[in-house]
Write a structure and sequence with these properties.
The complex is a heterodimer of chains A (74) and B (400). Chain A is built from 3 helices and 2 strands; from the N terminus they run H-H-E-E-H. Chain A has 74 residues and is α+β, with helices and mostly antiparallel strands. Chain A has a two-stranded antiparallel ribbon with strand order 1-2. The N and C termini of chain B lie far apart (240 Å). The chains are: A alpha+beta (74), B alpha/beta (400).
Chain lengths: 74, 400
């Protein structure tokens, strides 16, 4: 079964949740370090999503997506 | 034939009287397009009404403008009610308006209100059924004309906020016959594309006729039934259409729609940075507090350490030792004193003391005291003890 890719929003919520647990919970050192590692991984995933977005502007043309050049059209 | 010479004002007064007595001129309905509009500081409105072939100057006094349901603009087609009279100072006639209606607006406006009421009753505008706009959409679908100003505004604002944002444009007519059908198809199409998270329906500003497609009942249902949230960015600030009421979020302009749909990359990065700092602080605090707890345990352990027992024992031993020494010293001194007393006593009784007084003791060679002549006669040699020593002597007897 392929796990559904977590959305940016899900990851952000996860990160906030981890921090809340670390700040409020009376964690053992092992748990705290585990949370910290997961948190840092989540940070990196978030950065990755931001930077890997392609920034592509497409126009639907006869059922196909083609590059849209606003300068040309204007 | 003699013609009386009139003054200018007398002539103007006469013309005015003729005009004012004309029952048609006294109450006219005139249709035309507004031009040369000037809204004076006093509140009076001066303008011309024109059609293809002519124009007439017109004025509307402040007291009458209060009943206006719209702000007149150049180019507007209007129907006015009023009277025509002469302006004495200029000798010009003008139309004094007391009512003004926008031509055409009446029917469309009534239809708009009727549809609005109907859809409102059906719950299409209920706030609690509106879908939230995703804060971090993967891709945004835009239904608009690919050649209009709206799409350029949207692309400009979107890429300024996030250079990496993804957009899919669904090209559609946004005015004229069939526009609402194309927009409906766009909504259906974009609803079937998995990674589209938000849909924008956009069009630049225009007259009520130009925006009329956005007041379409079928389009309203399509927006209502869309599974993906829809932002409407139709017209300018003041233009309100049915789609604005039924959409999940109304943006006053296409640019504002992009502003709502596209999160700012800088803000997103800042948020992650803040969270990362919090994460680091909290692991630091955790380790710190664990290490403090350890330090406290260490201190407690120190307090109960056997080293203290040992130190105490040392002290005890030292005490005993010094007591021992003290007693020993005391004891020794007592003995010493006793000894010296005895010595003195002994010295006092020493028989040799008499030697000091000039006496001597005679002993045989075995150190036996010779105390009688009888004993002496048996000796050949003897020892004499004097105060400064012992001397050996030979015995010879005289008179024998």
């Amino acid at each position: 079964m392929v796990k559904k890719k977590e959305s940016y929003e899900d990851l952000l919520l996860k990160l906030e949740d981890i921090i809340a647990k670390m700040e409020n919970g009376d964690l053992s050192l092992d748990e705290a370090i585990k949370y910290y590692e997961t948190g840092m991984k989540t940070c990196n995933s978030l950065y990755k999503i931001l930077n890997e977005a392609e920034g592509k502007i497409k126009l639907l043309s006869n059922g196909e997506e083609i590059d849209f050049d606003s300068e040309e059209k204007s | 034939m003699y013609i009386k010479v009139l003054t200018v004002s007398a002539l103007n007064n006469y013309i005015k009287k003729v005009m004012d007595n004309d029952y048609i001129l006294n109450n006219v309905h005139v249709k035309g397009e507004i031009s040369n509009l000037k809204i004076h500081n006093s509140g009076h409105i001066y303008f011309s009404l024109k059609d293809e072939f002519g124009k007439i100057n017109a004025v509307m006094f402040k007291s009458d403008t209060e009943n206006l349901r719209f702000t007149p603009e150049n180019g507007m087609d209007v129907e006015v009610t009023g009277r025509v009279s002469l302006y004495l100072k200029e000798g010009s006639y003008q139309l004094y308006c007391n009512k003004m209606e926008q031509v055409g607006i009446g029917d469309l406006y009534v239809a708009f209100l009727r549809l609005k009421e109907k859809l409102e009753k059906e719950g299409l505008f209920d706030e609690n059924r509106k879908k939230p706009i995703p804060p971090y959409p993967r891709r945004i679908g835009v239904i608009t004309s690919p050649t209009g100003a709206a799409i350029r505004d949207i692309i400009n604002v979107s890429t300024r906020r996030n250079k990496n944002c993804n957009i899919l444009i669904y090209p559609a007519l946004v005015q004229g016959k069939g526009a609402s059908q194309e927009i409906i198809k766009g909504i259906e199409y974009l609803n079937n594309i998995e990674d589209i998270d938000t849909i924008i329906i956009a069009r630049g500003g225009g007259s009520i006729e130009e925006l009329w497609n956005f007041n379409d009942e079928e389009l309203a249902y399509a927006v209502y039934n869309s599974k993906k949230p829809i932002i409407s960015g139709v017209g300018h600030e003041t233009d309100f259409t049915i789609i604005d009421l039924v959409s999940d979020r109304r943006a006053p302009t296409p640019s504002a729609a992009a502003e709502i749909a596209v999160p700012s990359l800088a803000e997103m990065e800042k948020r992650i940075e803040v969270l990362r700092t919090l994460l680091q602080n909290s692991i630091y605090n955790t380790i710190n507090s664990k290490s403090n707890a350890l330090e406290r345990l260490k201190n407690r352990l120190k307090l109960i350490s056997p080293i203290n027992e040992i130190v105490n024992s040392y002290n005890h031993i030292d005490n005993l030792k010094s007591k021992l020494y003290h007693h020993m010293k005391l004891n020794l001194e007592v003995k010493k004193e006793q000894l010296s007393k005895n010595y003195a006593l002994l010295a006092a009784y020493n028989p040799l003391n008499i030697l000091n007084k000039g006496y001597s003791i005679i002993q045989d060679m075995d150190n036996n005291v010779i105390s009688s002549i009888e004993m002496l006669k048996k000796q050949e040699k003897l020892n004499i003890l004097l105060k400064d020593g012992k001397i050996e002597a030979r015995v010879s007897f005289e008179g024998e």
